[in-house]
Amino acid sequence: SSSSLPSTAKAVQISKTGGVDVLEYNDVPVPPAPGPGQLLVRNRFAGVNFIDTYFRVGLYPAPVLPLTLGREAAGEVVAAAPDASPSFPPGTRVVYLADPDAGAYAEYTAVSAAKAVAVPDGLGLDKAAAVLLQGLTAWTFIREAANVQPGQWALVHAAAGGVGLFLVQMLRVAGAKVIGTASSEEKRELARKNGAGWVLDSRNDDIVARVKEITEGHGVDVIFDGVGKATFDAGLAMIAMKGHFISFGNASGAVPPVNILQLGQKNVKLMRPVLYGYVAERKDLEKYTSELFDLVTSGKLNVVIHDVYPLKDAARAHTDIESRKTSGKLLIKCD
Ligand code: NDP
């Protein structure tokens, strides 16, 4: 019950932007009760996402300072506001997308109830936190942004990364022919094992030439590009006529402004989607989350956990994800 709550708890915060040394392991007040519409959650596992590094370095502006980092976690509901909708009884196992100003690298987080879903029995809190944000990103981008059709050629950059490894598996479910890129042989093997028919070496291969060969001149019908600056121009060169170019991240830096006249040559549909727009309505969050959990519990989606870091070692998780050495999901254990 909330009467047994501690008055302070640990959280990883930034009060200025910069390198991993700006991450602070702080004692912060635990809200005595959730705010309007909110749940107070005792986090068990928080997901690490590349976006956390964008807030840390300042590529994306912090909505408040100090800011607790972390966009998702899974844990148990400690208390629910009387007007929380849906209302989750205390003890419910939930996984959630954090509110912008109250992140999940913490022992306790207050979150809008509308951004939380119950974790099905039989799904561990570690897996739930490992799959939510990156899995919803991959699934909604395949279904809504690109509307991938069976038989299409799809290219996934950073195919052994968090989002990438979900994309290759889900694209197989959608019936696409999948070409991945990755920077090490170990990563390429992982992408192959998880459904990529072809995996290219992003450091040494001529990606455009190899894609032309593999697709026999057709090009790729859809590109999922979370790498950004380093891969954008190659994307336009290897996309098929009428292709969908889904540019969704900045791992190598943000894509500079684009001359839209370039798109006319192949009638390219270029998009820069953000997950939150596809799950802004409760019905969409519930629909896509339930489809995602079904993929996991039916065994169609393999959830690869790279490593689990103690909360106080969040800086090491950031160093690792930024160094291109990780594959699959990085988790933080919140106690
Ligand atoms: P990943 O686990 O995929 O890590 C990033 C990967 O990017 C690396 O492993 C690396 O793979 C590749 N990469 C290529 N160039 C660089 C570079 N210069 N520095 C670092 N990494 C590089 O991270 P996530 O799965 O969390 O995110 C993947 C991308 O998706 C990110 O850009 C993220 O911002 C974006 N994203 C966007 C969302 C949206 O709503 N728009 C939602 C979620 C994620 P390799 O070494 O094999 O090239």
Describe this structure as you would to a colleague.
28% of the residues lie in helices and 27% in strands. It has 9 helices and 16 strands. Strands 3, 5, 6, 7, 8, 15 and 16 form a 7-stranded mixed β-sheet that branches. It has a 6-stranded parallel β-sheet with strand order 11-10-9-12-13-14, sandwiched between helices. A 3-stranded antiparallel β-sheet has the order 2-1-4, with no helix packed on it. Helix 2 crosses helix 3. It is globular and about 65 Å long. The mean pLDDT is 97. The structure holds NADPH dihydro-nicotinamide-adenine-dinucleotide phosphate. The site of NADPH dihydro-nicotinamide-adenine-dinucleotide phosphate (NDP) has 30 residues, from helix 1, helix 2, helix 3 and helix 9.
Defining traits:
7-stranded mixed β-sheet, 9 helices, 335 residues, 6-stranded parallel β-sheet, alpha/beta
Write the SSE topology:
Blueprint: E1 8-14, E2 24-29, E3 38-48, H1 50-57, E4 67-68, E5 72-80, E6 93-97, E7 108-112, E8 116-118, H2 125-145, E9 153-156, H3 162-173, E10 177-182, H4 185-193, E11 198-201, H5 207-214, E12 220-225, H6 232-238, E13 239-247, E14 269-271, H7 275-278, H8 282-297, E15 305-310, H9 314-322, E16 329-333
Parallel strand pairs: 9-10, 9-12, 10-11, 12-13, 13-14, 15-16
Antiparallel strand pairs: 1-2, 1-4, 3-5, 3-7, 3-16, 5-6, 6-8
Helix pairs in contact: 2-3, 2-8, 5-6
